[in-house]
Write the structure tokens for this entry.
Amino acid sequence: MSFLEKIFTQLEAAGDTILLQEIRDGQIVPVSGRELLRQIGQAHAFLAVKGLKKGDRCALLAHNSVRWAAMNLAIIAEGLIAVPLYGRQAAADLVTMMKDCSPALICCSDQALREGIVENWPDAPPQFLFEEIFATDAGTLAKPQLADSDPVTIIYTSGTSGDAKGVILTAGNVGFILGATSARLDLLMSAHAGQGGSRQDRVYQYLPFCFGASWIALLTYLQRGSLVTLNTDLTKLAGEIRGVAPDYFLNVPALLERMKKAVDEQLWKTGGMVLAIYTRAKNSWMRGQEGKSGFSDSVWLGLANALVFPAIRRKMIGKNLKALISGSAPLSIETQLYFMMLGIPVLQVYGLTETTGICTMDDPRRVTPGRVGPAVEGIEMKLGENDEIIVRGPNVFPGYWKRPQETAKSLRDGWFHTGDQGEVDAAGNWRISGRVKNLIILGSGHKVTPEAVEEELLRHLPAGSQAVLTGNGKGYLSAIITGDVSTGQVQAALDVVNPGLPHYKQIRAYHIHPEAFSVDNGLLTVNGKLKRDAIAARLKSEIEALYAVKQAV
């Protein structure tokens, strides 16, 4: 039975049970399994009369909604290939991707998105709004026939260097991963069976469905029959999370960092005894992680666990949370330990779009902070040249859309070369240390993985937004630092960081760039990853100046 048949079977079994609900203008709009099937039938009937053939691409340009979920499933059920696109991305970039995959038609959630496409692509294929698609009478939904080798989606990578590439995923890829993700969630929920756990998981979703991990998450939730609440306004996250009180939800590190910072700022405003207990308990917790705790530390932690931490948990994430799930980018160990201190487990997931979003997942029974868990059963992982992680298994994609040379570079001898550097401990838990292409080779021949040094620098520079190391072929490392920081603050941070590093990893010069790198200025991907090549090109003269006259640091 294909993953799609399993989902449709679950929807039929759900009947009038609510599975998806949107929060719009403070009101919850619920949809049952029966109603979702009806909406899928509407979209399916609309597509069925468009003269499309199996394997045609159908672009899905929309913001998260119940209709997004219905449209996605209808496209796949019709034998077409779904191409989910990010509604907040620049229209010109979206057009580039669509020209690459040549969709037979484009489905848009609203007129503004359609106008953006037409303005940048006058000869675009037919575009249809959800309003007209879901005005169609629902047709009879036949059981979808999917072979494991059938492509079901093309998801475009974020493109940290160069154009985004279309990753083809098959029904077999998706079916395997859905089994793996659901099994991990079973472990999480069963561990809390006697602590308010319910038969139907409660999930909150704010990350766009067009991203690989979110796309897989949606299908996982539907296959499990979970109750999924969809955010439609990112400015209302905090209040919605408390109101929904989910069992778990998928996150990116940036949100967890903001949540942590918001607690600190609020408690500084509150002051008094609460702040005193919180501050001392945090210091005590960190000493404990270093094996240096004493009797007074246990006292402060005891007070915080009784008087402060429970209130933070309730205000931050409600009463039901079993775990936060973090993926997309590395999470700092400091942030993971912070949430652990509050009594909130953070489970990490590692993978790429090319691995159907997943390679490793933390086992909720055995979490090692700073690591992303063991490889999913059935997936092989090992280290190649320059400690590059390479992967083999039923989750690995068959190739990039219309890019045979790129496919041949990435898939060699049956192994997918991830481009990520890592290490694995004796228990099989992986740690991601950086990207191979980001490796800096100094003129001395020393090799530096920049991410760890950048993270450590920012840890001691709270006002800094980003740090980017440079130095390929040079005599020493320099840093570009963004944010509202002074030279004195940077100097103070370097005075702490540099002495703990080998001489070749020490930062000898820096440039402060007040404007943070962002998607809008073209220096971050839509997933929040640094476009290092673009940064180097944009700040070429500033970087050259760092090596023309070395600053004293």
Notes: The mean pLDDT is 90.
